[in-house]
Design a protein that fits this description.
D-Maltodextrin-Binding Protein, domain 2; 312 residues; 5-stranded mixed sheet; single chain; Double Stranded RNA Binding Domain; 10 helices
Length: 312
C-alpha cells in the first residue's frame, strides 16, 4: 500500500476547460482533506501542439493524454484529470481509471451567429467542428450544409465564429456549461440528431494502479451510474476499434439496474448510417457494449468501417 503524502500533483492539459476540470477535482479533494497541498501541473500534449491538422488525419490514439500518462508513469504527477472522451480504450500498463465522477450533460450544442436553430440554417451554411462523428450525423440530416474543420480550444472556436469564419459551430455542451457559457448556446442537439461521443460529458481520473493512497482520496467522487454507462460505451468502441478517424457515436443511460445503450456507425459523408440499441442489466455493461457492437457490424457497420480504413 502506498503511504500517505502531504502533497498531491494533478496533471492536466493547459486549456481553460482542462484547468477548470482539474481545479474542480482539486477543490473536492481539499474540501475533504484541507491539510493536503494540491497543485496542478500543466502538460502540453501532442493534440495541443498540432492545431493545423484535422484530428482524423493525425493518426494514433491518446493525442490528448499520452504525455500526461507518461508523467503519471514517471511519478512526476500523482493523478491525471481527463475529458473521458479523450481517453483511449486501452490504458498503459500500470495505469487505471481510478475514478469517474458524475457526468455532465452528454449532448452536443449548436452555437450560431444569428441564433438560428439547426433546422433553420440556410442551405450552404458553414458549420465548424473537429469531429467526423458530428460531421457525418449533421450531413445525414442535412446534406445541403458545408461542414468544415475547426480545431482549437473553446475560446478559439468561438472567436472564429464571431469573426464570421463560420455560420455555426458544434461543441460539447458539457464544456460550455462547466465554463458558464450556457447563454451562448443556441440549441442543445437531441440525441436523435447527434448522438454523442464515447464518454462525452464525463471526467476520467487516472492514477497508478498500485497507488492506494490516491485511490482513497478520489473514491468519494466516484459515480456508479456514470461508471456503468462509460464502461459500456468504451467496450463498444473497443470492439469497433474506433478512433478520431471513424464516425462512431454511443451513449448509455442507467435507470436503477437497467442499462440502455444507443450507438451508430456512419460513413464520413453521412450517406450511410447504421444505428441500433440494446437494453440489459447494469452488471453486464461491458458485454452489452460488445453485443451492440456486433449487432452494428452485422447490420452494415462492418462494410462502412472497411471503406473508411481502406481509404485512410
Amino acid at each position: 500500500m502506498t503511504r500517505a503524502r502531504e502533497t498531491i500533483v494533478i496533471g492536466t492539459r493547459g486549456s481553460r476547460l482542462a484547468i477548470w476540470q482539474a481545479e474542480w477535482v482539486r477543490s473536492r479533494l481539499l474540501e475533504r482533506h484541507p491539510q493536503l497541498t494540491v497543485t496542478l501541473q500543466r502538460i502540453k500534449t501532442s493534440g495541443d501542439k498540432i492545431t493545423d491538422v484535422p484530428l482524423a488525419k493525425m493518426g494514433g490514439k491518446g493525442l490528448f493524454v499520452k504525455e500526461i500518462e507518461e508523467a503519471l508513469q514517471a511519478k512526476a504527477i500523482d493523478l491525471a484529470v481527463h475529458s473521458m472522451k479523450d481517453v483511449p480504450t486501452a490504458l498503459p500498463d500500470g495505469l487505471e481509471l481510478i475514478c469517474i465522477p458524475t457526468r455532465e450533460i452528454a449532448a452536443d450544442a449548436l452555437i450560431s451567429r444569428d441564433r438560428l436553430r439547426f433546422t433553420e440554417l440556410r442551405p450552404g451554411a458553414r458549420i465548424g467542428t473537429s469531429s467526423l462523428r458530428r460531421q457525418a450525423q449533421l450531413l445525414h440530416r442535412r446534406a445541403d450544409l458545408r461542414v468544415e474543420t475547426l480545431r482549437g480550444n473553446l475560446d478559439t472556436r468561438l472567436k472564429k465564429l464571431g469573426a464570421g469564419e463560420f455560420d455555426a459551430v458544434i461543441l460539447a455542451a458539457a464544456g460550455l456549461r462547466r465554463l458558464g457559457w450556457e447563454d451562448d448556446v443556441t440549441e442543445y442537439l437531441s440525441y436523435d440528431v447527434c448522438l454523442p461521443a464515447m464518454g462525452q460529458g464525463a471526467l476520467g481520473i487516472e492514477g497508478r494502479a498500485d497507488d492506494a493512497f490516491v485511490r482513497s482520496l478520489v473514491s468519494p467522487l466516484e459515480d456508479r451510474d456514470t461508471r456503468i454507462s462509460v464502461t459500456a460505451e468504451r467496450a463498444l468502441l473497443n470492439r469497433l476499434q474506433g478512433g478520431c478517424q471513424v464516425p462512431i457515436a454511443v451513449h448509455g443511460t442507467v435507470e436503477q439496474d437497467t442499462l440502455g445503450l444507443d450507438a451508430l456507425v456512419a460513413s464520413i459523408d453521412g450517406r450511410r448510417l447504421v444505428r441500433d440499441q440494446l437494453r440489459g442489466t447494469a452488471a453486464e455493461a461491458a458485454s452489452l457494449g460488445e453485443r451492440l457492437a456486433e449487432q452494428l457490424l452485422h447490420r452494415g457497420a462492418d462494410a462502412i468501417l472497411k471503406d473508411i480504413y481502406g481509404s485512410a
